[in-house]
Design brief:
Blueprint (H helix, E strand, L loop, with lengths): L4 H16 L2 E9 L5 E8 L5 E5 L4 E8 L5 E3 L7 H6 L6 E3 L5 E2 L3 E4 L2 E4 L8 E2 L12 E6 L5 E8 L10 E9 L4 E10 L3 E2 L3 E3 L16 E4 L3 E3 L12 E2 L11 E2 L10 H6 L3 E5 L9 E7 L5 E7 L3 E5 L8 E2 L5 E2 L6 E5 L14 E2 L5 E11 L2
Antiparallel strand pairs: 1-2, 2-3, 3-4, 4-5, 6-16, 7-10, 8-9, 11-12, 12-13, 13-14, 14-29, 15-28, 17-20, 17-22, 18-19, 18-21, 21-24, 22-23, 23-29, 24-27, 25-26
């Protein structure tokens, strides 16, 4: 039987779409020390991108994207199993909160009432305290295949959790599309006034996980200013221009070009870059490009889009050679970088930085879009 041209074309299109349709699946990844199951969700788009997400910490466990030769490779650092995660937590790919980054001395005042949260980073509180969002099991709400495979996870943080007021319900959605874009969306609601600042703490190496230093990878940050810190990494309150400094990434430069400049006290404090760039003074209406990284070796290019006012850039300063990663290699200083869109650190104690307050009826939202391409 002869098939008409239009019908044949429709069948061919349907077959092609089916072959490239995104898929989502679930599998066990082991158990926590107290016997709870940890699930790994795998999202694939049929175009060389595969994202793997853990329910522990709502973490991005792996992300495979093609290099300039079309060969996919994992570009996210992490442990091969749960043993390392519990033995030495390092926020690999984790969702961090309730308040990402640092709160000075673990104290803040909200609506005239003083609160104390756990100190876990020298004299300060980091990433929500000793048991932040990174150390809890999230619930899988939804897993979807199709044109945009995705997983949505949720966690309910009770009133008083780590000292924070209000019961906060947070959702994390990971999705990928056929353009090799990964989107992470965080939302949060509360039943009482509180503070919220949630972000993702993935360690990236565009040449491939376990491939060594990222110091030759070229970084652009679309910020005219940054926040200098004291010796404990708390912002001093100054908003300092990047012009003429080692912190000027407005034009792409190698991450390691200026990182060992001992004359720059800020680099001495952080053992490298561990600072928040001022992208804008308040949240933008829509995501815009806040950073771009390119790897001359693999050709991979990462463009990060966000509406958040701040961007924390961390150059992997505390990777110390004691961690063995997924591919069996040892992670050393400078073997990865992190780019974390967020509110400014210590905002609850520094009103000039804006507000981190979330009230009942409001929805906190942080959307991060990671767009991948290749250079020839």
């Amino acid at each position: 039987m002869k098939i008409g041209t239009s019908l044949a074309a429709a069948i061919l299109l349907a077959t092609s779409v089916g072959a490239n349709a995104g898929e989502a699946s679930k599998a066990s990844f082991g158990r926590t020390p107290d016997g709870k199951d940890v699930t790994l969700v795998t999202l694939s788009n049929g175009h060389g991108m595969t994202a793997k997400v853990l329910t522990l910490g709502a973490a991005l466990y792996a992300l495979e994207v093609p290099d300039r030769n079309g060969k996919p490779g994992d570009i996210v650092l992490g442990y091969p199993d749960l043993k390392g995660t519990f033995a030495k937590p390092q926020y690999f790919g984790d969702t961090v909160g309730r308040y990402a980054n640092r709160i000075a001395k673990g104290r803040f005042t909200l609506d005239g009432k003083a609160y104390t949260v756990p100190v876990n980073d020298g004299p300060n509180s980091l990433h929500g305290g000793k048991v932040g969002f990174d150390k809890v099991l999230w619930t899988i709400d939804k897993v979807e295949s199709g044109a945009r495979p995705s997983v949505t996870l949720s966690y309910v943080s009770p009133d008083g959790d780590q000292g924070y007021p209000g019961t906060v319900t947070t959702k994390a959605t990971y999705s990928i599309d056929d353009k090799n874009e990964l989107t992470i969306e965080y939302t949060a609601t509360t039943d009482a006034p509180t503070i919220v600042n949630v972000t993702n703490h993935t360690y990236w190496n565009l040449a491939g996980e376990g491939s060594g230093s990222v110091m030759d990878q070229r970084l652009m940050i679309a910020g005219d200013a940054y926040l200098p810190t004291d010796a404990t990494a708390i912002p001093t309150g100054e908003i300092r221009s990047v012009a003429g400094s080692d912190f000027d990434f407005r034009k792409p430069k190698a991450i390691g070009r200026d990182i060992r400049d001992a004359k720059e006290q800020q680099l001495v404090f952080g053992r490298g870059y561990d600072h928040n760039w001022v992208i804008s003074r308040k949240e933008a209406a829509q995501p815009r490009e806040v950073a771009r990284v390119s790897d001359p070796k693999s050709g991979r290019v990462l463009s990060l889009w966000s509406a958040q006012p701040g961007l924390q850039f961390y150059s992997g300063n505390f990777l110390d050679g004691t961690t063995s990663g997924k591919s069996g290699g040892v992670y050393r200083q400078g073997d990865a970088f992190a780019l974390e869109p967020q509110l400014f650190p210590d905002t609850p104690n520094q009103p000039a930085f804006g507000s981190a307050r979330l009230a009942p009826g409001q929805t906190y939202r942080n959307v991060m879009i990671y767009k991948f391409s290749v250079s020839r």
